[in-house]
DNA sequence: CCATGATTCGACAGTAACTCTCAATCACCA
DNA sequence: TGGTGATTGAGAGTTACTGTCGAATCATGG
């Protein structure tokens, strides 16, 4: 695999490099503090101290406290992956593939963070809220892709409902994963979820 | 119809009556202020003033500002309706019926509020977040009902995913309704959404 | 190598949502 | 009517977040 990393190759100036470093420092500080104190008990001031920046800088990098936790850099990757799938593949298979890629990357790069994040998604309402926002955003991406694939208008009620229902289902997978401490089989969970989304509920009664 | 109103019949004491009045006053004040100033510009203090209570009282009645906007009293009604449907009805029909009842009630009782609420759902992130929370809660109700109906465990991944995906789809209907100023045909929108959720996307290609 | 212009940073002040506490008031019941 | 427990109001405190303003830092052209 030829460099499957989040971002860019352009020769990045010193300024940019510093920015990335601060960004990372803030996120690392946040994760560490949350691990040992919990989310609410962790204040922006503490984060700033630990990351060796001023509180104002923290806000310059992340609009809200929740964003420090949930922001990641996979969206462009996902989008690319989404567009790269063959035209005749069913949406479920496309999603299966895309989700698998995203999960693999995320789990490989920073496994504890991935877990912590999904745990916070169940435990802290504010974080959950922010996650749903970003889920809705991804839903909009998804419906663009599905529009091309299905020939439906991207803003038709049908497509919108469909995309959001898929995202809702996938979000539930994350919660389920966090609640029932399953280990590495998130991907299996995703597969099962996509089966449900594709074929509907397999009820006991016919 | 014999009194299809949110709540109770027991002879309510003066204390209870006052509580209900204050609650209503706070909500009314909030809606009025938001109509004329917008959500963010409206502070709790203003709401308290207008409702002729103290700010602390406002917080006593509603945990957050968003709750003042989105709280309603239909959940018990919905739940009852959900359980009352015949056993052999398909989940889609059950939902169709329940949603229709809820919408009819809500639109009949306070049409402007219903519209405003769904508008705020698109415009104000915090409100949207709170709506999704309550949507998730309703999703849990839904999956209880679906569990009885389908024979699946209420906390099985499959059922959870299914319920949340349905709720996601329905939430999108509300957003769609708010964005495209459709008039009275929310119910038609719901019908179309449920068709999608039941049968999947009707794509252009076979 | 230095001046210039653009960013970025830290410090500070301000707002508003929420929390807690305590004393005063009020509805209910004997 | 007097006691009692619930409800309220006032106030002070915490914290996330916003805006502004010089100072410091850095990329760039001469």
TrEMBL record, chains A, B:
Gene3D superfamilies: Homeodomain-like, Tetracycline Repressor, domain 2. The keyword Electron transport does not apply. Keywords: DNA-binding, Transcription, Transcription regulation. InterPro entries: Homeodomain-like_sf, HTH-type_TetR-like_transc_reg, HTH_TetR, MftR_C, Tet_transcr_reg_TetR-rel_C_sf. Residues 43-62 bind DNA. The keyword Transport does not apply. Residues 20-80 form the HTH tetR-type domain. It comes from the Bacteria. GO terms for molecular function: DNA-binding transcription factor activity; transcription cis-regulatory region binding. This is TetR family transcriptional regulator.
